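yo

u said u wanted the structure for the complex thing, so here. seqs first:
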Amino acid sequence: MTPHRPARLSLRVLAIAYVTILLLAPLFVVFWRTFEHGFGDAFDWMTTPAAVSALWLTLIIAVIAVPCNTVFGIACALITTRGRGRLGRWLDAILDLPFIVSPVVIGLALLLVYGQSGWLAPLFADRGIKIIYAVPGMVLATIFVSLPFVAREVTPVLREVGNDQEQAAATLGASSWQTFWRITLPSIRWGVAYGVVLSTARALGEIGAVLVVSSNVAGQTLTLPLLVYQRNEQVGTQESQLLTSVYAAATELAVISLVVLAVMMAFGSRRSSRK
Amino acid sequence: MRGPAGRPARKVVKAVGGGDNPLTLGLVVLYLSLIVLIPLAAVAVKGVSSGLGTFWSSVTNTLSLRALGVTLVMSLIVAAIGAVMGTLVAWVLVRDRFPGQRLLGTLIDLPFALPSIVAGLTLIALYGPDSPVGINIAYTRGSTLLALLFVALPFGVRSVQPVLMELDLEAEEAAASLGAGSTTIFRRIILPALTPAIISGAALAFARSVGEFGALALIAGKVPIASIVIYDDIEGGDTQSAAALSLVLMIISLIMLVAIRRTGGRVAR
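structre next:
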């Protein structure tokens, strides 16, 4: 059913207007504000030690969290599709938790277990191993929030691919590992790739959980999102010049996100054409 | 069924693919326990650890109640608006053709890719004190609503879009040939087919909005929001109150989770 032309046009305009008012215009304003006083100011800020170390920390945490979750995700997908028993369905439900639970609750949860008087304090905090208010805690928080993506993307692919080839390989004498490495893994590579991209985007952008478990010390435990938060607290939203640093940090993150979005688009079409 | 060499084929399946490998299983369970399950359990325990009386009073003090009330109502509104606009946008993406359509479709995922705090900042940049067009609604419920709509946008669209794409046009064509107008066709044929997906998307948007923090952290101001109250409690050292309120949020989220799965929706994209 195609509505009459005027109806079609007004729907189209409404949809575009909604997305513009909500997403595009605000994003554009941040870009504009960042470079409003010239590229120099913005770049100067982006190259200060605090900004550079924040960017590095954000990237490093992601580089640790995402591979962990990738391995975990593939293992999960294998258990869900190839394993027997109810564990698969429990896993599926548990994997929804990081989407459903509020990030600050996640931070609190980690605090209560790995913090000073936490459940696992005898193992860590009491021995002087700092997890909370240090980078390891931030890594844990990031792992929690970006946990399900690879598992979620790989499971349907694995299910669809089926294990005929793997069975064939087994009858030909291949070991489990060989089968996995040479047959299973290549068949799921686009699902993994897409999951990794989603996972990375989430890991780079995390604020709520990481804010709770970080000590928020510049140069040590400040990620880029935390820097945006902190600077905004310090500066408020009144004075344009001082705001450049807040906007510049936001622009860095936004640019990274747009790149991620582009990759998502590219992988997405590969992924669906494979199905 | 027997495989080569007379061995039962079932045994071959079992040895392949790692699905039943106890080591894999053990490691996965350990990973989940250490990172997800035990920490969340700790919140639940802490919430009630000082007794149910303390739990109840933490949750029913004025600020917590107001925050819960505002958060829940806002989330409901967002779910509703998100459902309507999401369906509209999905419609335009599936049933229409215009230049830039693919770009629009990709941009819908922006809230997934963009850090939530940047989302909040973009909204406050355009609709706050520093606004280039003079609109200042920062620190009000209006701006809070905007921020949540931003974050919830993809859920409304992406839950409806695939269903819309799969719709069999025969029923619509038949109705049209029998003389039904566009509105009738939409109301009686298309909408019923979309309803489960719309509800699923709305439930997801609700669940997401209830716990949202990053997008609201800069823009909420004095508007009482549950996640911000929890954060303030943690910062103030009152982990018991934080845990109590968190437990309430967790219960609400779990209920939503069950509801979503029951209606056949998926929590991830």
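Residues 62-95 of chain B form the longest helix (34 residues). The radius of gyration of chain B is 24 Å.
cya
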